[in-house]
Structures are given as C-alpha cells and as structure tokens.
Amino acid sequence: MTTYIELVGLLIILMLPFLYETSHIFRYYFKFLIYYGIVSFNSIILIPAFLFRPCDVRNLLSSEMFSKGFLNQEKSEHLLRQLEIWASTFCHRISTLIGLRWELRGKEHLEKDQACIIVANHQSSLDILGMFDMWHIMNKCTVVAKRELFYAWPFGLAAWLAGLIFIDRVRGEKARATLNAVNHKIKNQKIKLWVFPEGTRRNTGELHPFKKGAFHMAIDEQIPILPVVFSSYCTFLNDKKKILNAGNIIVTALPPIATEGLTKDDLDGLMERVHWVMSDTFKQSSTEILQRYATHSLNNKCQTSNNSNTPKLSPVRTPTTGVGDDFIKHTDTVAGTTTVFDKNDYQDVMGIKKSTTLIH
C-alpha cells in the first residue's frame, strides 16, 4: 500500500513540469497557490511576534522593532528583526517565483515622513505583491481592506495585528465611522493610509469611478492625497481565461495633491482631479508596457517562424541622419525613446500594439 502511494506521488511530481508548461490553467492556479501559500506561511510565523504589539502599523516594518514585551529589549528587538527580515525576504521572492517584475517610479514621494492618503487603482490581489515590493520605502503605512479579508486566516489575523483597517463595505455608515475613528490618529502619528478608492478590483484596462471615503478623510484632516498608479495587467493576466504569465508592471507614485483650505464643497472637484491625473498616468504607463510586450512578442515570432517570407525585426538603435525610404522612425513620447524599423516590421509592431489590449 505504501509503495503504491509513493508511486502515485512520484507520478504526480513528474507530471508537474509537463502540466506547468502545457496548461495555462494549471499554471494560473499553481502560481496563485505559491502566492497564497507563502503569504499564509509567513503570517503563521509572524503572528506570535505581532501579539507583543497588537494592531500597530510598525509590525509591518523590518526597520523598526518593538521595544516592549515579556523579553528584554535587546532580545526582543533581535527576535523580531530576524522574523520580519526573513518573512519580508520571502514575500519579496514571491514576485520572482511567479515571474512578475515591479518598476517603481516617483520613489521620493513615498519616502517623505508625512501623513497622507495613498489612493491606488485596484486590478487584482496581485496588487499586494507590488505593495510588498515598496513597503520598506513608505515607513509607517497601513491599508484599508474589506472586512471579509479578516476571516481569511491566518493572513487576516496577521493583517489585523499589523494594524490594517477592516471596513464593512455593505454598511456605508459603519464604514465611515470606522474611518473617522482612525483619521485623527493618522495625522498625529504621520501614518500613510493606503486606500483602493475603486472598491472592487477590476482588470479591465481602465480606471473606474472612485468612492468618496478617502477624499472625505483627506479634507477632514487637511492631509494630502498621494496617487499611486499600477500599469495595466492585461498583457499577462486574464482571470476569466485563467491566464497568468510573466509580466512587467510600472508603479508610479505621483506628487502629493494638497487639500489645505479645501472643504466638503470641493470634494467632487478633488475626486475628479485625482481621477484624471491617475487615468492619464495609467494610460501612459500601460502604453509603454504594451509596446514592450508587442516588441517582445514580435521578436519571439520572428525567431520561431520558419517561414522565409516572415520579415526579420530590424535591430533597435538610435536613429541617425540618412534614414531611407525603406525605414520608419517611430518615436514613443511616453518612454522617451526612438526606434528605427523597416516598413514591414513597423506594421507588425503597430498591429500587435493596437490589437493587444487583453491576453487572447
């Protein structure tokens, strides 16, 4: 019986590489299993340490260690330092394991020691990996999350002990009361509050209307809004078709938008301004990612095709004078680069760029 079970187990292990390479559905679920599994494992390890300093946003940092507890200060600091650095390292590795690369722009805005409301677009639970990648930059920061996430133990319990704020999205009045209770604390302790103002995550290639809660908070305490924009996931993620490939994401932290002197009468105007600047940045960064994806796809097509009629991609180079009639000079105003293609290559690249808004 034992031998039979071992053989079945061995067969499953041998099948994993084959399934991973041949089935995008298996690959989709396998990557999310790695993601959720490592996060849950880290949560189990960190919960005992967080219990010494419950519901404190500093629990999420590896640079600040707790100084009170049943252990003496030196030992407690060393213990929590080792646990948090170890856990943080593993969380950073998740993106590498599933093939995601985060490119942060505007880091200097996140580094400022100031209270602010960070508003970010919400496309997938993968957003959390992007937050892991920049968490050490933001110093004290906490997140507004839906109440249902608290019950996803062990992660939910660890998140609560780390100071995350859970709100009931169904009961609007209760959610506002919860946010009002922490608003003054955020300003006094110079905490950054991360909010997804769209509410529900949607990977549709555009920003959706914002809810008012974050903007009410910013005006009430006269603290700035700091927009953070994740470029589109459409080149590597399609939840309906169960596709999760390797991909690059540009994360742009924009300059803070001041709220000093604003009142409730300015709420709609503030929301429109923030939505506009985030939408514009989203379109620009997504266009840049899409062009990279299109060029990469075309290169792969040219390398793998055995058809002699398939045009070969011209080497990408900085154009010089004397570009002839057989070549086209394409300037990308978003990326700030200029590329020279021959005419056939250019048509192929632009064809991919225009048609590739979602993974097919």
UniProtKB/TrEMBL annotation:
Keyword Transmembrane helix in record: yes
Transmembrane spans: 7-26, 32-52, 149-167
Any one of the GO BP annotations: phosphatidic acid biosynthetic process
GO cellular component, one term: membrane
Stretch forming the signal peptide: none
Record has Disulfide bond as a keyword: no
Reaction catalysis annotation: a 1-acyl-sn-glycero-3-phosphate + an acyl-CoA = a 1,2-diacyl-sn-glycero-3-phosphate + CoA
Start and end residues of each stretch annotated as Disordered: 301-321
Enzyme Commission numbers on file: 2.3.1.51
Domain topic, free-text comment: The HXXXXD motif is essential for acyltransferase activity and may constitute the binding site for the phosphate moiety of the glycerol-3-phosphate.
Protein name: 1-acyl-sn-glycerol-3-phosphate acyltransferase
